[in-house]
Amino acid sequence: MSTDVEDAVARAAADGYGRLVAWLASRCRDLQLAEDCVGDALEAALRKWPESGIPANPEAWLLTAARRKLIDARRRAATRSEYASRERAPSDAVSSLQLEAHEAATAAFRETLPDRRLELLFLCAHPDIDPSIRTPLMLQTVLGVKAERIAGAMLVKPATMGQRLSRAKRKLAEQNLPLSLPEPEALPKRTAFVLDAIYAAFGTAWFEGREAGLVSEAIWLARLVVERLPESAEALGLYSLMLHCEARRDARIDSKGAFVPLEAQDTKRWDTTLILEAEKALWLAARFQRPGAYQLEASIQSHHAHRARGGSTNWDAIHHLYGVLVRLYPSLGAFIGRAASFGRMGRAAEGLALLDGLEEGRTQLYQPYWAVRAHLLRELQRDAEAKGAYEKAAGLATGPVVTWLLRQASALAGD
Q1: How far, in Å, CA of 386 to CA of 383, rounded?
Q2: DSSP symbol at 270
Q3: Which of 51, 254, 273, 382 registers the highest number of CB atoms within 10 A of its CB?
Q4: What is the pLDDT of residue 95?
Q5: DSSP sequence for 243-259
Q6: Backbone angles phi, psi at 259, to 5 degrees
Q7: Which of 234, 193, 198 has the alpha carbon at shortest distance from 216?
Q8: Nearest to 196 by CA among 325, 26, 331, 326
């Protein structure tokens, strides 16, 4: 098989997988079946394009192949149903009519395929779906990410992830849920589910360094929501937040592969194009005057980005924003950020008191808690405790940051 064909199929899958799955799912209301049909179509392309040549419109070709697979699947299901009930039905006539409808519909969609991916995101984030599987479901159905890769990013066994995804898809099929946007009154809450799932994918990949490829895919999903829901201030806020973080990716690791904390990063290595796009998204969100948690977090990252121009960080502004965040949206991450900002303002004792007031059960396995605690203890010259906190943080971390944390601990030990 030629590399050109493999590249063409890969591009077609990257560009059209989610659109094809979403459109087929809207017709059959069976997410697993829709995925299977698109997968079969991609396999058919790998077999046939080397002989027939790469089509002028690969997505239309895949649509035709996938729809044929769908009709075949329905025909087999109808035959099994007829056999089970021992009633003869005009299956050949039905199949013929289906095929005619298929050809007509395919011709109508050769130029443009209706984009139902946003509806697919909402389906994956349906309230009846376990929150823990919403993110993997989105990644697989909208982007075509393999279960094995999702499992690796989220530290789950591939077989376990596959089973969870299959159960979720069966549940959607059994309930016969339509592929549609929620009613206006339910849209804000359901949108929040979608945004939280996207951010979970981003957070797993970016903050913990487990799967770099998922970062760009999560950003792509956020961009899709922004494009389809341009008046969602929180979607714009999430998009801005993710772009600000991603803009600093190259600066997080130095030329020797060592981790570099945010305050020590070389701002010349930050991606100014991404920063400008992030600032634009945040400005667009502010126009709606509907502040939310993602917009506040994006504003904090925006203040960090200003160091590239002014040379310093406005910790007073960041501290204030964290205060608003913990008051209105009191997440564990918000409290950790608030405590860290106390430390940056020379008020480490207040930051440590804030950490001490958090519920122990929520913090024991939360790596940022131990990293910030270690910093505050070091500022208070409680070196023995700081060393233990750094070691605890290192044990909960992955990637180059582990070495950096252990070095901080070693320095306190006098080694």
Answers
A1: 5
A2: S
A3: 382
A4: 45
A5: HHHHHTTGGGB-TTS-B
A6: -70, 140
A7: 198
A8: 331
Length of the chain: 415
How is residue 75 written in tokens?
Answer: 């025909």
Cα–Cα distance measured from residue 408 to residue 390, given in angstroms and rounded to the nearest whole number? 7
The overall pTM is greater than 0.85: no
d(CA 66, CA 303): 48
Amino acid at 139: L
- Angle in degrees, 0-180, between the axes of helices 131-143 and 3-28, rounded to the nearest 10: 130
Lookup result for tokens 């592969």 = 257
- State the angle between helix axes of 3-28 and 31-52 in degrees (0 to 180), rounded to the nearest 10: 150
Cα dist from 227 to 23, 115, 230, 231, 239, whole Å: 18, 11, 6, 9, 11
Residue with tokens 């973080």: 245
Element (H, E) at 78: helix 58-85
388/370 Cα distance (integer angstroms): 9
120-165 residue pLDDT tens? 888 888 888 888 898 889 888 887 878 887 887 777 888 999 999 9
Q: Which residue has the tokens 């943080």?
A: 393
Distance, in Å, from the CA atom of 399 to the CA atom of 253, rounded to the nearest integer, reads 10
Two structure tokens written together for 159: 């077989």
86 DSSP 8-state letter: T
Residue type, 318: I
The torsion angles phi and psi of 235, rounded to 5 degrees, stand at -65, -40
What does the DSSP 8-state code read for residue 182? P
Report the amino acid identity of residue 85. Answer: S
Query: Taking CA 347 as the corner, what is the angle to CA 267 and CA 379, rounded to the nearest 5 degrees?
Result: 75
- Shortest CA distance to 60 belongs to which of 99, 8, 107? 107
Tokens of 351: 């930051």
In whole angstroms, give the CA distance from residue 93 to residue 149.
Answer: 43
pLDDT of residue 323 exceeding 90, the answer is yes
The rounded distance, in Å, linking the Cα atoms of 260 and 155 is: 25
The token duo for 40 is 């079969």
Residue type, 166: S
Cα–Cα distance measured from residue 137 to residue 150, given in angstroms and rounded to the nearest whole number: 10
User: b vs e for 369-399, b when ≥16 Cβ sit within 10 Å of the residue's Cβ?
Assistant: bbbbbbbbbbbeebeebbbbbbbbbbebbee
